[in-house]
Amino acid sequence: MLKKLLILFIAVAPLAAMAQEVKIATVNVQEVFNAMPEISGIETQLSGKQEEIRKNMQALEEEFNKKQEEFETNPAASEAAKQDQQKQITQLYERYQTYMQNGQQEFQQLQQKLLEPVNRKIFEAIKAIGDENNYTFVYDISSMQSPIIYFSPSAVDATPQVKTKLGIK
Fold it and tell me: How many degrees, rounded to 5, is the angle at CA 47 between CA 45 and CA 53?
């Protein structure tokens, strides 16, 4: 008798699991991201940093070009002086390359540091909307890289709810 009940339970359990309603919603994360009030301030900070890096790179480039021109127009009298000038030019070029790499890394780190809290707020709001509305899945439809090929026009668009949760109009 116990064995029959166990077999019946095993047979019915998948049917019960499939009987649960699957609720799916979509959200356009890029639309929400662009509507966040913090974004304009972040863009200002990032463009300021980018301009600072560009100016410093330009100054290094000008210094390099000046040394290169001096080397070409005023050849040194001795071989030792020529080698010293070439060494200075090489060092300037290496400084330029190093600064360019470090500047890119510094910019990316600042970008990540500034955007991480915004992204966290968005995904916490999406999770809250998903929990409140018992959605089984919430898909981001802002990217063509999305695994969703098609969604019905009757699918729930949670984007307005996420914006409301974040206080965005």
Answer: 105
Can you list the alpha helix ranges (DSSP code H) found in 74-158? Answer: 79-132
113 Cβ neighbours under 8 A, 6+ residues apart: none
pLDDT digits (tens, 9 = 90+) for 20-42: 678 888 899 999 999 999 999 99
C-beta separation of 106 from 100 below 8 A: no
The per-residue pLDDT of the chain, averaged, comes to 83
Residues paired with 138 in a beta bridge: 25
Number of helices and strands (H, E) in the chain?
5, 3
What pTM value is reported for the model?
0.69
Q: What six digits make up the tokens of 12?
A: 């019915």
Which two tokens mark 35?
A: 């509507």
